Amino acid sequence: MKKLLAVFALVAVLGLNAAAQSPVKLSLYDDIAWPQTSKANVVLGLVDNNTPTVHGLDWNFISARADEMHGLQGAFAYARAYEMRGVQGAIYTTSKDAVGVQWGLLNVADTVTGVQWGFVNVSDREVTGAQLGAVNFAQSMTGFQWGFYNQAQNFKGLQLGFVNNITSIDRGLQIGLVNIIKNGGWFPGMVLVNGRF
Q: Which of 40, 47, 87, 171 lies most in the core, judged by the most C-beta atoms within 10 Å?
């Protein structure tokens, strides 16, 4: 208990000099936070946090939200950052532009440069890196998909799974029980291996 009180006292002292940017921000829910700041290095929240810019640590028990997050963002249920640079973890993670690692049961991003690692991984635009999960979807994929079901519209790289599905392949390889390449592969459907080089 004494250590916890000491941490809160330190946070309070550090937060007193916060005007535009705070080294530490404590949040209860949405804008119920101290100090009231739009930028912080460390955000610690109980229910939810909505800090536009976080460079450092953004940790909340239920939900963490930021427009720009550079560092580590984590929550139990939901983590959202429009621009994410670093690591993001929760049951459901979402980002418009993710550079780093998204880790959760459901990971959704427009563009990913790095790794999506979870049960279901979805990219509405482009992935450069890897998707590791039971189900992986990418509009455009350059890299590696590993899972039970992998799907990409445009693909360059390696798919490893039970069912691999590509609409158009530039060059790459599919290894799995069912391999489908609708346009550009050796054959439209193959067992065990399919591809184009």
A: 40
CA distance 54 to 67: 8
HSE value, Cβ hemisphere, 13 Å, CA-based, for 85:
6
Query: Do 118 and 131 form a contact (C-beta atoms < 8 A)?
Result: no
Residues 6 or more apart whose CB falls under 8 angstroms from that of 190 comprise 174, 179
pTM for this one?
Answer: 0.81
CB 61 within 8 Å of CB 76: yes
Query: According to the model, what pLDDT value does residue 33 have?
Result: 53
In whole angstroms, give the CA distance from residue 196 to residue 167.
13
The ranges assigned to domains in the chain are 1-78, 91-197
Residue 64 and residue 90 in contact, taking contact as beta carbons nearer than 8 Å: yes
Give the pLDDT confidence of 76-109 residue by residue, as tens digits. 999 999 999 999 999 999 999 999 999 999 999 9
